[in-house]
Amino acid sequence: MNKTVALDEIPYSPDGCELFQRIRELPAAVFLDSSFPHAQGGRYDIMAAQPAPEQPPGLCTGANQRECEAYFSALGEFHGEHYAGIQPASHDIPFCGGLLGYLGYDTGNALHGISKLPPTDLPPARLHAYDWCLVQDHLLRRSVLVTQPRVSARLRQDLLARVCQPLLKRTPEFGLHGDFVSNFDQSQYKSAFDRIQAYIQAGDCYQVNLAQCFSADYSGDPWHAYRRLRAVAAAPFAAFLDLEDNNALLCLSPERFISLHGNHVETSPIKGTRARYEDQRADQLAATELRRSEKDRAENLMIVDLLRNDLGRSCIPGSIHVDRLFEVQSFPTVHHLVSTISGELQAQRSAIELLRDSFPGGSITGAPKRRAMEIIAELEPTARQAYCGSVGYISADGRMDSNIAIRSLQCTNGEVRCWGGGGIVADSQWQLEYQETYDKVGKFLQVLEDFPKIQKITPPPA
Question: How many domains does the chain have?
Fold first, then answer.
């Protein structure tokens, strides 16, 4: 059987949203989005829909550690069988069909044997197998339809016709029923902060990431919310995932979790944040302050050491290097302190094993990882669900990339949730940490609150 994927050139769209809207009505549509001009480092857009008839196993809500480990093993077996022998499409095509979706943070709880009340509105993981995709390369200004050999000629022609059809303009329909409400007030946040400080002083941990969750009821199409958010907070690892029944995951993440290209592994943790300012001088001062901050550098270094250890479980001994340390990267709403670590994957290890043994990302747990996760489970009143998990893909040809699902909004069952968090260390001050959560997602909340409010309609009693 022919194992070479087919590439068909299609019209290039500088704004990937316009291309995605042509396939968005298809089942389980997904959009890994890096096309917006302000997105630092973004090159590829990846879009897919209509999952293959054969699908990988799912992970049940409330799964235990053994069941979660079995899930990753089953994913590996499925990938190896379903995409056996597929040849790389091109060096410039990062995804040629494969597994794509999200792993929620609660999957990490299960992997590490940590109990947390299970959420009921989203499965802990959702990865579909896709046999075709659209890929845009913004460096080469090229767009292609990529199809696996099993895709029929008829479907291929239907897709080519669909992506060339005129785009229908639709009136945006989205609105909140009221403003966002946090699951922490200031006193509750301070109480949790003080508890973390007690654990740090007792030597239980060095750093814990503490997040608060903002929620509001909404009506309408989450896609319109994503487009409005994207206009003010674009990011190189953004994503929109249609979760069916008008549910969706919106992600404006600036942070890469793990990529794998050939045997080369790379991770780029973020730790350290300053708000951006419209005044250029104030904005430059904020970036300079972040670059020189001993606290933020120490916090970042803790996570670099943690990730070096995580990669050491899968990479060749001696191959792990810190390529960039304490680099200031500026995004539309914040400055971040970013480091980059790389290594070479051991020959007998797979992409899925690498992902499993590093999950979840240390930048959103703290250190040491398992103890920090236990403290998070104790202190955070709302399960993180997809937030702080990962959105990404494992291509049919073995290539992988994934984000840390920060700056994420989960639209499920008429409620939108948005989390904001930050790492707490020994010399943290609770007021500054509390404010940092607003610095990270305050603009997101404001954008959605600025939509015209929609009155909630209560059905009459039966």
Answer: 1
Asked if the structure places residue 435 within a domain, the reply is yes
Q: Is residue 461 part of a domain?
A: no
Identify whether 1 is part of a domain: no
> 94 near 46, Cβ under 8 Å?
yes
Confidence of residue 363 (pLDDT cuts 50, 70, 90): very high
Q: What pLDDT is stored for residue 2 in this prediction? A: 55
Active-site positions read 255, 271
**DSSP string across 53-83:** SS------TT--HHHHHHHHHHHHHHHHHHT
Q: How far apart are CA 56 and CA 308, in angstroms?
A: 30
Tell me the CATH number at 110: 3.60.120.10
Interval 123-182: pLDDT, tens:
999 999 999 999 999 989 999 999 999 999 999 999 999 999 888 777 668 999 999 999
For residue 322, which of 298, 304, 337, 346 has the smallest C-alpha distance? Answer: 304
For residue 417, tell me if it sits in a domain. yes
Concatenating the DSSP letter of every residue in 194-228 gives HHHHHHHHTTS-SEEEEEEEEEEEEEE-HHHHHHH
Residues spanned by the domain of 187? 6-449
